[in-house]
């Protein structure tokens, strides 16, 4: 009987290690995809003449959004500062101390911290040629490279960090809330006139890159398999689709809020729809990729 128990324990350990490798591989593949999206987004919307014109037109299409929405977005975005990053780090570390998974907290903080630093570096080192000859019409903050959006990177990175450190049964629902919040902030940087839509997309992708690597590292070092969340994940995807649809309707109402403003043009509608879709897709995918994993009390690998 003792030998049989040892055999079952060894089998469980091998199976857990195999699933750990599989999940880490999925997250790293996701990280590679997000890295490619950061590069493709830059080459397409910053270095491409026709697509830069589309991106610029989408930015100017924001004038169709009502003033109440614009003021609301600016008020929220004004509170995303270095203090927000530090507060996010404190919250993440506090939660992981409570959950006895401090190592995962450190990994999560390093993940979103690296995303924030990379966003600032990229905005400085990447050139932005004025191929569409529209730069004269932009505010001073957007004359030159603004890709990727630092505000979007900060908000999405912290959202993904919270999903990462959360208990497995909380992640699907946190993903929906995170999708709503991030879609609001990512579109908000455009509505407020702080960024072009491509900047928001770049920020989302950069956050996905860094936090996917962090997720893979957390599972490799501290992952513990849990079961019984398949149905919850199914509900999450349906709820995420419904939330995205409701958000889209609310957004359409917001665009029509300004009766005296111009009609929203096609580039604006298409780019904003893309930002919303990517925001919801990333939070839902991240929760799905982390499915069935929680953290050991002592931060040591299971099995």
Q: Pairing-aware structural class of the strands and helices?
A: mainly alpha
Give the helix tally: 10
Please count the beta strands (DSSP E, at least 2 residues each): 2
| Topology as a string of helices (H) and strands (E) | HHHHHHHHEHHE
Fraction of residues in helices?
over 70%
Summed over residues and divided by their number, the pLDDT gives a mean of: 82
Query: Roughly how many Å is the radius of gyration?
Result: 21 Å
Strand content: under 5%
Uncertain regions: pLDDT < 50 for 5+ in a row?
7-14, 298-303
Q: Biggest β-sheet, characterized?
A: 2 strands, antiparallel
Strand arrangement, largest sheet?
1-2
Q: How many discrete structural domains?
A: 1
Distance between the termini: 20 Å
Which overall shape is indicated by the principal axes computed on the Cα atoms?
globular
> What oligomeric state do these chains adopt?
single chain
Please explain how this structure is put together:
The chain has 10 helices and 2 strands, in the order H-H-H-H-H-H-H-H-E-H-H-E. The chain has 303 residues and is mainly α. Helix content is 73%, strand content 2%. It has a two-stranded antiparallel sheet with strand order 1-2. It has one domain (23-295).
Which descriptors would you attach to this protein?
10 helices, mainly alpha, disordered C terminus, 73% helix, globular, single chain, 303 residues
Q: What is the topology?
A:
Blueprint: H1 2-45, H2 49-60, H3 67-77, H4 82-98, H5 102-125, H6 150-165, H7 171-191, H8 197-222, E1 223-225, H9 230-255, H10 266-289, E2 293-295
Antiparallel strand pairs: 1-2
């Amino acid at each position: 009987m003792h030998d049989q128990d040892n055999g079952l324990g060894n089998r469980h350990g091998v199976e857990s290690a195999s699933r750990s490798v599989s999940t880490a591989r999925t997250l790293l593949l996701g990280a590679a995809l997000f890295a490619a999206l950061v590069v493709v987004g830059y080459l397409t919307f910053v270095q491409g003449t026709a697509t830069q014109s589309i991106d610029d037109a989408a930015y100017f299409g924001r004038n169709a959004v009502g003033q109440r929405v614009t003021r609301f977005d600016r008020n929220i975005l004004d509170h995303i500062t270095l203090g927000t990053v530090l507060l996010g780090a404190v919250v993440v570390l506090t939660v992981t101390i409570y959950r006895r998974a401090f190592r995962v907290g450190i990994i999560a903080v390093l993940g979103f911290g690296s995303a924030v630093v990379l966003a600032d570096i990229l905005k400085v080192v990447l050139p932005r040629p004025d191929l569409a000859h529209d730069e004269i019409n932009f505010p001073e903050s957007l004359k030159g490279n603004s890709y990727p959006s630092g505000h979007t990177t900060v908000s999405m990175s912290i959202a993904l960090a919270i999903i990462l450190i959360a208990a497995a049964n909380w992640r699907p629902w946190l993903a929906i809330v995170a999708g709503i919040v991030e879609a609001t902030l990512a579109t908000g940087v455009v509505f407020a006139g702080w960024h072009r839509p491509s900047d928001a997309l770049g920020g989302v992708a950069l956050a996905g890159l860094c936090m996917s690597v962090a997720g893979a590292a957390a599972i490799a070092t501290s992952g513990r398999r849990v079961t019984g969340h398949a149905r919850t994940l199914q509900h999450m995807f349906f709820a995420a689709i419904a939330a995205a649809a409701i958000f889209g309707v609310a957004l359409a109402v917001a665009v029509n809020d300004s009766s005296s403003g111009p009609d929203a043009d096609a580039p604006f509608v298409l780019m904003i729809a893309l930002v919303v879709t990517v925001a919801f897709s990333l939070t839902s995918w991240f929760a799905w990729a982390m499915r069935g994993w929680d953290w050991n009390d002592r931060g040591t690998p299971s099995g």
